[in-house]
Design a protein that fits this description.
The chain is built from five helices and four strands, in the order ββαααααββ. It is of the alpha+beta class and 114 residues long. It has two domains: 34 residues, no CATH class; 75 residues, no CATH class. It has a two-stranded antiparallel ribbon with strand order 1-4. The protein has a two-stranded antiparallel sheet with strand order 2-3.
Length: 114
Amino acid sequence: MLRKKRWVQHNAVIGAHLQDGVLNYNQVNPAYLAKDGAALLTSPINSSAEIAAGITAPFPGFQQLWGKRATVAQALRSFPQYSTIDTAGGKGITVDTRHIMPVSSNWRGATRAG
């Protein structure tokens, strides 16, 4: 009697809590665009339109910090002192977990049952 040897192989990768920068914690709330329009959001923080809308600098020194980039949109961000917040760099925000389990399946030759 002949016996066939069986080999099983399987490769898998599982990721948990993987981030690719899709979270934008410092995004301007879209409601401001609908309410105030793009023209106001892109205007400088010291413009007459911004003053008429009642929007002020979020903290003293805001205009000095941002210079010509001190816009109404920047002032309305959750964290106006930052231009971006990195969520892809893994600085304590994300954890990657990978599991690999090798398994394969092949019929190989035959051996005699003894």
